[in-house]
Amino acid sequence: MKTKQNPNLTRVAIIEDDAALRELFSGWLTASPALELVGAFANAESAMETVPTLRPDVVLVDINLPGRSGIECVRELKPRMETTQFMMVTVYRDSKLIFESLSAGATGYLLKRATREQLLAAIDEIVQGGAPISSGIARMLVQSFHRPPTESPEQDSLAPREKRVLELLAQGFALKEIAAELGIAIPTVGTYVRRIYDKLHVYSRAQAIAKFNEFR
Q1: What is the pLDDT of residue 216?
Q2: What structural domains and CATH numbers belong to the chain?
Q3: Environment class of 138 (CB within 10 Å of its CB; exposed 0-12, middle 13-18, buried 19+)
Q4: Higher pLDDT, 139 or 1
Q5: Helix (H), strand (E) at residue 61
Q6: Which of 8, 126, 158, 166 has the fewest C-beta atoms lying within 10 Å of its C-beta?
Q7: Is the whole model's pTM more than 0.70, yes or no?
């Protein structure tokens, strides 16, 4: 695929088996002056072979792919591409699939009915350190927070401020919003986040959120 080769652009790849939808998303990304489409794949197998060499910043992944699922694809690619953000773009609203996706390493979860503006905004949010989730999905996650919490050894290892930062991450706060909420500098929030990752043995915001939900 011929690319723009501009280091200032956000590099995006697509893994989607529906040819019409793959073409639609490709058109949206190509038309955006802030994005560079570096690859579009119809299945997990071809993506897992090629995507790491493309060095995308963001990968849009369908769950229901022929052969290996999108969740399996993310689970294999994320450890090899730690700085790349994976966002599921799917028709599924099943809470089990949501948590499996986040646990596998996805950072966002968007429904396919999203508009062009919503998709591009979600890509921008994920690049800025956010965890974009469709509003209906977000409500499902919030409802899960209402269950009585249970302690775990990993949760016990977190300091009170680290627990609070993790709670705000799980509620969808961006780093700058957490800084404002707690009255601390953004780099300090980043330090807390890194400590949380180390203590929970995770390497992404989404996996930390999945751990948070296991605690509740």
Answers
A1: 56
A2: 10-142 (3.40.50.2300), 145-215 (1.10.10.10)
A3: middle
A4: 139
A5: strand 58-61
A6: 8
A7: no
